[in-house]
Amino acid sequence: MTKGTIFIDQEKCKGCSLCTAVCPQEVIVMQDDRLNLKGYHPASLNEANAHCTGCGVCAVICPDVCITVYREPQMKSHATTAC
Amino acid sequence: MTTIALNETSTLVYQRPHSLATCNTNYCPGCTHGIAHRLLAEAIDELGLQERTILVAPVGCSVFAYKYFQMDGCEAAHGRAPAMATGIKRVQPEKMVVTYQGDGDLASIGMAEIVHAAARGENITTIFVNNAIYGMTGGQMAPTSLPGQKTTSSPFGRDTQMTGYPVRMSELLSTLDGATYIVRRSLHDIANIRKAKKAILTALKVQMNGMGFSMVELLSSCPTNWGLEPSEALHWIEKNMIPAFPLGDYKVHEEVKSL
Prior knowledge:
The complex is a heterodimer of chains A (83) and B (259).
Chain A: E1 4-8, H1 18-22, E2 28-30, E3 43-45, H2 57-61, E4 67-71
Antiparallel strand pairs in A: 1-4, 2-3
Chain B: E1 11-14, H1 33-46, E2 53-57, H2 65-68, E3 72-75, H3 81-91, E4 96-102, H4 103-109, H5 111-120, E5 125-130, H6 160-163, H7 169-174, E6 179-186, H8 190-208, E7 213-219, H9 223-226, H10 230-244, E8 248-252
Parallel strand pairs in B: 2-3, 2-4, 4-5, 5-7, 6-7
Antiparallel strand pairs in B: 6-8
Helix pairs in contact in B: 1-8, 4-5
């Protein structure tokens, strides 16, 4: 499986949670115990559960464009898993 | 701001488009105006048009749209964005002129301007964000509100006996010979957002090639005034808006198909 990671600009996040609903790996969580400067609970990548594939659908749905997506180069043996 | 550990081999797959300003927007959480802004900015970046695009902002929630893009922009009087865009395009035909309008702006007070701009076949592009309600002023009934839809000015639901039926702008404009590219897309899920991006790219190419008037209608959500959670609002688009405003290509001129 392709491996990737995302960076969420938490000060831009408005906590709408659309990214958590679309993430196929369910690795994005809302930080209910933290507020950003605007007073929203921002989204964050659950890094302990390192299953992010860098597919980027969270960045496609994010209305505040606060997600940057990175991906590791694919291993040759898994060359067909890209989305 | 948190830092992330990246391997040297990591490649950047997606980042904020350059044409989009870095400031925060005034939109409510989950509002799809942000998605529409991003798609327009991505399309402008991909076509390398940032330096020669002029955005005409409307009156409505997106009244500050000129602030949210890193390109030239101006503010039109309510509904008059197509008229202002006509003037700009005729004086500076080498510029790309894009109007960004909501349904309260385009389908109500600006109905005359958009119809005549399309009828004249002005070489401009319009991004029409349709969320079936007046967002900025507090959720009143718009010309595009659905029959039975509860708004602050129709608390018992839109009564078609008294207030009529929703106006379908794409269908209406597609009957005009001056219009070249009129399509309706939706922003309620990933696949449809990608289709919307493709349509915006085509609309800009229509203008680049001097083919005439192009408009992309985007079905959008207004979680705050609909009284729904952001994800429920996206489901509401799919369940209620798409049956009333069917997605599709309403006018695609023959020469556009070759783009």
